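INFO batch 0412 | record 1 of 1 | parsing
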Amino acid sequence: MTVRVFVDGGAGTTGIEIVDRLSGRSDVTLSLLPDDRRKDAGARAEALAGADIAILCLPDDAAREAVALAEGLTTRFIDASTAHRTAEGWTYGFAEIEPERRDELRSARYVSNPGCYPTGFLALVRPLVREGLLSSETPLSVNAASGYSGGGKAMIAEFEAGTTPTAFRPYGLSLAHKHVPEMQRHSGLAIPPIFAPSVVSTYRGMIVEVPLHLSRLASDTTVEQVHAAIADSYAGSPLVSVASLEESASMGTLSIEHVGDTDRLALFVFANPKTGHIRLAAALDNLGKGASGAAVQNLNLMAGLPEAEGLRI
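INFO prediction complete | emitting tokens
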């Protein structure tokens, strides 16, 4: 048997990469609309009716419209937009974030694909909150840099036209980025983190950092305990790796393209025990584990297929 998959919005950056991962698979029957029918509500409704699972690679309003078009159907959804990441009735599609999440995804009808920056942030912070090492009342900041493909259509156009004035460009300066509610809710934090994103002059790749001080963690917490809480959370994961403290200590730099063009997520705990300073860091591809790779991973789980099938490992 094959699973019938309709990619709604397959002409966009995320959709193109999802289609690339699914094309040629014998366990997937892929459906796309031609360019002249992509915005035709009737054509979309027909494609949704013929799909077991629809992957939405659309603006938020169009994603909500797609769900409405499928009213009365049994079609299951993976929404790669921001529209449903904190919505009731939707399962947050970060398979590794909670011990029970894979089982929840296998039976879920509505799955919201995580954002790229939140994936790195949550991978680092959620284990510490869950294990009680980091109080939910702790104010945090998250510093992150992405390839310019993570900056949206206008920013992509500027970089590719060569009109952007700098190789490093902070944005989200209003401190009201749409990823913040997602970060707060799924980390279990009571206080929204300060999010400082930027884009750099490379197409893909991402580094997300969360600085910590041991004095702000639970009493007598050690660097080793911080590392163990993170490493234990991802033991056995086919996609998430956690460098040992020794490996991290030996690194002089961390490239934004450390796992570029893959669907992997690499985590690090950089620490100076003398000062009590810690830099938690996540490296991922903003188009891989941060978008298209995560969608295909969720599809595999929902369809009862091997979790890493078709992914770039």
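INFO post-check: Residues 139 and 191 are 6 Å apart (CA to CA).
INFO record closed
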